[in-house]
Design goal:
With 142 residues, this protein is mostly helical. The protein is built from five helices and no strands. The chain has one domain: 3 helical TM bundles of succinate and fumarate reductases. It is 81% helix and 0% strand. The chain starts with a helix and ends with a helix. The relative contact order is 0.11.
Length: 142
């Protein structure tokens, strides 16, 4: 009886392998067109990683600025033009991750599963995070 079951399983796996070999394979990632929700999902992961990487730097910067007047001056020197771009990327990451998190929370509550709302909310997250970063950049440059 066990040999029969093993034979059936082997044949089922052979059939599955034959069916999967016929599928087209696209290994060029630049030709894949993701929907807006897919871009939002990837950006959400990138924003989370960026926040993870920037957290120790931010903690060091705050610690340095709170050490006294000399430490504050050193922290301001660190906040030069190049570092401003890094901080704006961090602001974008925080804004995007927050907005995407709210979107996913609503989706978990089964709000916004309809196709137009789903696309609109993904686009709103992408635009909203970018707008928050631009407003913060304008405020810092002033």
């Amino acid at each position: 009886m066990t040999t029969l079951n093993g034979w059936v399983l082997i044949n089922i796996f052979k059939i599955m392998i034959i069916k999967t070999k016929r599928r087209p394979v696209n290994l060029n990632l630049l030709t894949i067109r993701l929907p807006v929700a897919g871009v939002t999902s990837i950006a959400h992961r990138a924003a989370g990683f960026l926040m993870f990487v920037l957290t120790p730097v931010l903690v060091y910067w705050f610690d340095l600025s709170l050490r006294g007047p000399r430490g504050f001056q050193q922290a301001m020197v660190l906040f030069s033009t190049w570092e401003k771009l890094v901080w704006m990327a961090g602001v974008w990451a925080l804004a995007h991750h927050f907005l995407a998190g709210l979107r996913y929370l609503l989706l978990d509550l089964e709000i916004g599963f309809e196709k137009p709302v789903y696309r609109w909310s993904a686009m709103a997250v992408l635009i909203g995070g970018t707008l928050v970063a631009l407003v913060a950049a304008i405020w810092v440059v002033r």
